[in-house]
Amino acid sequence: INLPSLPPCGPASASMARLQRSATSLSLKGVGQRCATKTRHLKQMARHRVWLAITPSGPLVTPVCGYHSSLLIGETEYVFTGSGVVRSVGALSHRSLEAETMFLDFGWRIVDVPAFDAVMDELFARGTYDLLRKNCNSFVDVAICFLTCQRLEARYTQLETIVRRQEGYLHLVQTLSGGWYSPNPKADDFNIDAVIAKLGSLRTGVVATQIAI
Description:
Elements: H1 11-44, E1 45-59, E2 65-73, E3 76-81, E4 84-89, E5 102-112, H2 113-123, H3 136-148, H4 158-165, H5 169-176, H6 192-199, E6 207-211
Antiparallel strand pairs: 1-2, 1-5, 2-3, 3-4, 5-6
């Protein structure tokens, strides 16, 4: 704030001095509020090791192998289920599977975890899970791209790719599974490439652009 120079004495001088003190106080208060907000945000931005946990789950009704995957930020596992994004300590969701779990290291990242959680919870809400079209691998693909700008390798989503590309394949799977699999209508509008394309603008303030060392 550019304040006028004050005369050395007189009633007007005292009045202007009060105005100057008031304006300076307001200015410093605004700066303090912005600094406090930035400090709170910086405290949320923390350094975390990012991993993917992937376990072969065997073929469903085709010779193509399926995979179960989850994301780990530090020691916290994120896995997408019918209940939405579920969090636990360690790779808990893989423990009931017979095959060996592979861990892929994506290095250290600086992440605002609460903000990341909010974005993922909205995209992968409770009740929107579909075993073949919007599953744990879909979540991991979106989440790891959001955090690192890398995609889940295509071999881990081969089964889902077949489903998306072949017309009528969902009905075939439903028939061959004896009705065990039923498409979730809440996943009908899910397009993973479109979701990832829109996520770029949301990364600012959630994930630091640099890789943490």
